[in-house]
Here is the input.
Amino acid sequence: MNGQPLPREHGGPLRLIVPHWYGMASVKWVTRIELLSRPFRGPFQAKEYVYLPAPGAYDRATPVTLQKVDSVITHPAPDQRFKPGRVAVRGVAWGGGSPLARVEVSLDRGATWTEAELAGPKAHAAWRLWQYRTPSLPPGRHEVMVRATNADGEVQPATAPWNAKGYGNNAIPRVQFLVALMAHRG
Here is the structure.
């Protein structure tokens, strides 16, 4: 990790990485490998890392496996202040079980979407940086939203499907910021 042997707290000396799956599937501290003729029903696979359609509905639970298409806004921070003009919006996104195809930004609560610029190399099963410069913004409170779309056409949803444990929440993120005549220096 970062050019050094993998430390024990991160699963060292060996960790199984499962591309496109949520991190809980990247097993730490592998002690043995067994081939089974049926799905393993340990507590983490049957009770912990599952999507529950209703509280306690373990008979209808489905395992948390493939990541969902998702994005995150890393700049601006919530309630950050800017002078009137253009604002740099940045973040990361990933395509879930398929490569990331595009990232779009909205400044009008999702009425219109504008494609952001993807940065950095395309890498199998990795997130990508994205960036967008807004048009010149007048003073006032503004909200930015971002959504990702993968190569299979799956689009990040406005709201995540409900599940009792909250896993896989990939709802479109929103950040509000303020454009004011005097920006706060921090």
Residues 70-179 form a domain with the Immunoglobulin-like fold (CATH 2.60.40.650).
